[in-house]
Amino acid sequence: MAKTTFISWNVNGIRAVEKKEALKWIDEHNVDFLGLQEIKAEASQIPETIFERTYTVENINSSIKKGQSGVALYTDKEGTFTCTCPTVDILNEGRINEYHFDNIAYFNVYFPNGQRNEERLEYKMEFYERFLKHINALKAAGKSIIVCGDVNTAHTAIDLARPKANEKTSGFLPMEREWMDKLLDAGYIDTFRHVHGKEATERYSWWSYRAGARTRNVGWRIDYFFVSDDLKDKIISADILDQVLGSDHCPIELNLDI
């Protein structure tokens, strides 16, 4: 078995995480693909001391809005195509790393948050649709697909601690959840649910900084690894690394036999 390990983490500011030395654990793990979201920095601002390991590929996609959004991809796997996906991220907010290796299209994505106002919610839904159209086209062309990142939506009631109280909150609105249904219906697998099933409750990846939410585990599962259904039999494990601190999100992990 050729295990390939993928890690996804919304670090909520890579410079803040570096000050906490919260990425040093990467040095002790055999991580083949590291996808970070919401780095809030340009490439020149990312400290060289975030971890000691040196990856041969460092793909940084920063937002044109300084100090906001941004994604970073680290890997040693030689790829044939790297893109910031401008047809999806039309506002150049630094939301996507697209990286092709072997016959796989891998995406590290920081999906928009829709809670600010109605306009941003509309943009989030448009982003969702553009992204799904993009990966579907690649899938139709014969590519296997891996998507990781902060999707900013909890899919079902077991994916957040207080579903009733958040029925009218962006991140758990019917139309946002319906898009996730649409994603799965299009032939993509929520790897965590595939491995753990619906019995895995109270497993979250984001907690508000307010009111001790993490200590009380009042959280949301909004960070995901999705794979196209042709990779279903390649899934070894998928988990939420909720013991790792340093951000309001925790990392998630996927292991594939590829």
Automatic annotation (TrEMBL):
Database matches in InterPro entries: AP_endonuc_1, Endo/exonu/phosph_ase_sf, Endo/exonuclease/phosphatase
GO BP field: base-excision repair
E.C. number(s) listed in UniProt: 3.1.11.2
Binding residues for Mg(2+): N10, E38, D150, N152, D248, H249
Site (Interaction with DNA substrate): H249
Record note on cofactor: Probably binds two magnesium or manganese ions per subunit.
Keywords: Hydrolase, Magnesium, Manganese, Metal-binding
Protein name: Exodeoxyribonuclease III (EC)
The organism of origin for this protein: uncultured Sulfurovum sp
